[in-house]
Amino acid sequence: MKDTQTPHIPVVIVGGGQAGLSTAWCLKQQGIESIVFERNRAFHSWRVNRWDSFCLVTPNWQCRLPDFHYDREYGGTDPHGFMLRDEITDYLDAFLDRTAPQLHEGVVVTRVAPVTGGGFTVETSVGSWTCDQVVIATGGYDTPIEPDYARRLSPDIFQMHSVDYRNVDQFPEGGVLIVGTGQSGVQLMEDFIRAGRDVHLAVGPAPRSPRNYRGRDATDWLYDAGHYAITIDRHPDPVKAMTQTNHYMSGRDGGKEIDLRRFHVEDGVSLYGSLADMDGTTVRFLPDLAKNLDDADRSYVGIRDQIDAYIAREGIDAPTEPPFRKVWEPEREITEIDLAGAGITSVLWAIGFRPDYSWIEAEVFDTRGKPVFRRGVTDHPGLYFIGLGWLNTWGSGRFLGIEEDSRYLAGCIAQACADQAAGAGNI
Asked: Pfam families, from UniProt (predicted)?
């Protein structure tokens, strides 16, 4: 029996980003009422957690919210360009205006708990609700990652995580050590280079990708070849797919690839291996710079090989490209530096985030605290996740795959509603 004093709604969606609001729209099309709780403002991470020069890494044509594709319903005129931060939020806000969800902003969900007999209690900063089904659309970027040894760094060295970075002017004069070479780290590196700063980069194991290859953007080739349609259950190496850092490249200046060797040669960026430890002004690195650069290049060449194979298989007339060659190799591994002696006055952490699901009281997590599901559907009836990487395909958690994922999840929720109604009718 439902609590008549607590408002009830069929579906609660936690998270007002593109994943949650796409699901709300797909549910509305199914005739299912939902409510979306967002702790900040809709699309908060795009508005606030992006730096001033931020732009998309994938082309605009991949922005495919349900019934609101960039180059169709939205009417975007630069499908092969890369929207800047404010252009992205304009696109998202237009989707919000079009779909008109029941959205409650500034509401923090503090607890989601199963109810005996089915359904859930959802406790928030403005009261409690009950519901039949819950969609978790909070993403995986709750807690910025900084290693414990960051606390041992001298207080004379300024520190910031990428989530708080907006522009170079936030940093004191002097050199900067950027830790991490995922998509954020390498793009922030370029911000500092353009500002004329002395840049030092701790190079991690992130892979890299070509940008334009044989006359087209590499992502265009991969899409046509069916690469992005591969599902996680058909992937040849699903563990690697789900744990590997995103390939780095850039959408800046119309799109370009990032070759860290070239940035060292042409822009004087000092490269080191993975950060291992720090104490006072002493920073230590693993002797893995050469390996990490080689592994990134191996990924780069592998993508080129995939595209070459597709072009050959389909008999496509495309321009040829010269083979890849290294423009620089480290002569030795530098495993320790003194920041003060090197003129480095700040450290910028770009090593990612971890999710926080401590407020969900359901047995749907593995020993590492990660949710277990198939295409977002957990083993706990009525509890779903969306907006996470490789929920189903590479495009899950990105604009490219959100339409397919949200429609699928809405269909599962609609079926559960129908089953519940049929069960009630048989009582």
From this structure: Pyr_redox_3 (PF13738)
